[in-house]
Each structure stands twice: as C-alpha cells, then as structure tokens.
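The authors assume throughout that readers already know how a fold can be written as discrete tokens. A single example would do more here than another paragraph of explanation. An entry of this sort, consisting of the sequence and the corresponding backbone structure tokens, reads as follows:
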Amino acid sequence: MLQEGDYPDPYLELLRVGVEHQDVAEGVVVTLAVDGVLVTGTLIPTVVWEDLYFRQVAEADYYGMRKVVREVLGHLDQAVEDGRRRRVSDPRFLHLKDVTVRSGRTARRLPVWRGPVAAVSGWSLGEPDER
C-alpha cells in the first residue's frame, strides 16, 4: 500500500479519477503489472464494481451469502435514497471488469477485479497482443 510520502502515478491516477467521475469515456482498457502478473481489464467506477461484486456474490450464493447480500444492498440503497450515505470511491483501489490475468503462458478470465493502486508496478493503455 502507499506509504506516507508516496504518491500514486499521476497518469494512472488521472484515469482512475476520470472514470470515478465519469468524465472519461467508457471503455478505458488498461494492463497492469501486479506482483509479477499482468492484469488487463476495463476501468470502472467503484459504484459499478460494487454493484457487480454484490450481484456476483448473491447469484453464486457464496457461503450462503445471498440473503445477507440482499439485506445489505437494501439498507445501502435506502441510506442513499435518504441522503444518509453517499456512494464514494476509495482512492486506494482500482476496479476493473472483463478481466484477464496472465501469468507466464496461463491466462484466466474474471468478471471483476479490485486491486490496490500501490501494488501496481507498471501499466499501459490497451491489452497485450496475443502472439
């Protein structure tokens, strides 16, 4: 994670903030180097990731969580409607959808991904060539 005095990459931060505020056109694909693997996906706002995450947990009923997730979502939605809670982003994390994680010659697909900005050691726009 970012230590005191560390600053995120300003160019990657520009994309993260732009997507969070929906100032950047949808479809910004990035490839991130994270702990020796490449993570490729489309940058999305925290609230979109949160919705996709809760839906994935509820649909798969991970560990019997379907009922709990539905209750939590109901409370969160009601709090937003009542003005008691704003859905805000967490600047420590990047959120991606339609993700491919590549390690060596192995590639795995994931519906969504959340990772700490501080873990990114390098990045580029777009995705790797499959050659």
